[in-house]
From TrEMBL:
UniProt source species: Flagellimonas hymeniacidonis
Record flagged with keyword Lipid metabolism: no
Cofactor: pyridoxal 5'-phosphate
Domain of life from the UniProt record: Bacteria
Lineage: Bacteria, Pseudomonadati, Bacteroidota, Flavobacteriia, Flavobacteriales
Family: Belongs to the class-III pyridoxal-phosphate-dependent aminotransferase family.
Keywords associated with the record: Aminotransferase, Pyridoxal phosphate, Transferase
GO molecular function: identical protein binding; pyridoxal phosphate binding; transaminase activity
InterPro entries in alphabetical order: Aminotrans_3 (IPR005814), Aminotrans_3_PPA_site (IPR049704), Class-III_PLP-dep_AT (IPR050103), PyrdxlP-dep_Trfase (IPR015424), PyrdxlP-dep_Trfase_major (IPR015421), PyrdxlP-dep_Trfase_small (IPR015422)
Transferase among keywords: yes
Protein name: Aspartate aminotransferase family protein
Coiled-coil positions: none
Pfam families per the UniProt record, alphabetical: Aminotran_3
Amino acid sequence: MKLFDVYPLYDVTPVSAKGIEILDDKGEKYLDFYGGHAVISIGHSHPHYVNRLKEQLDTIGFYSNSVQNPLQEQLATKLGALSHCEDYNLFMCNSGAEANENALKMASFHTGKSKVIAFSNSFHGRTSAAVATTDNPSINAPINKQQEVTFLALNDFDVFEKAIVSGEYCAVILEAIQGVGGLDEPTTEFYQFVEEKCKSNNVILIADEVQSGFGRSGQFFAFQHHGIQPDIISIAKGMGNGFPVGGILIHENIKASYGLLGTTFGGNHLACVATLAVLEVLEKDDLMANATRLGDYFKQQALEIPEIKKIKGRGLMLGLEFDFEIADLRKRLIHNQHMFTGSAKNKYLLRFLPALNITKEQIDVFFAALKTELK
């Protein structure tokens, strides 16, 4: 049997990693400034994370949600306290796409409606309703296109209001910082307007924090930069530092009932411990403050490079926009400088999504290499 060939692959085979350093099968060292799409939030093989998982494996790794699992309650308490979202309830699943599926399903249950408002250049996953709300027709199969989704421009107040007052929608789904789309953001005024209109029209506001959550923007959630309160928050990626885990935070105004949502693997013992370990490191090492400090430092360094036309993002969810497509630059950074970076739907944007405990010295190494490749 062969692998189903859906990924264009760089010719690099990582075999071990620590912090932001990765070793390949030839013994070459690479620096990871991308974290596998913002997944590696506290660094590869963080000792606290590794020890927590090992200890849990020695006791119990999995049982289904048909029995008590106190780790889920511990996680909900810790997550609520650190994120300041105590007035939400936690449902755990396995990925960001699944989180958004459950968020959209809950919105439809709650309102009795099915249409969704999403935004240009959005990315919410690759499954069913999640991919239908993703602004990329090439990854939407006919079965996905049965979903009724209206795509609107970010920050267009009039168009948004005309759509939402129709009374047809169950949900608005919005990234506070677009990931794959290219790091565009709603303004604070627009996000607050969306929140207000959702409330007055009985529409569920879903904050997609799959990539921007867990401290990456400098706040625990990126929507917290705008002073709003969503009805549902979707989470994944940096949540587990590489362990496959996702979830949604559902405001307590939305009531639960048996059978409303379900999952086999979601919230298993290892997933809970992986997420608890991430939260413990985020808190102990003050990594949200570090994301803010080093995000500011990154922007200062970027201003010194004339080829960079625009700096986008917040905290350590950042992008550098050039006046040329960056695919070749990204290849040179991998092969010549041994550095992983990211791309976006915006072909002129180089994405920078390192672990939140990155240092100034490592950022300096990145910019020295970037300058070399821009000569």
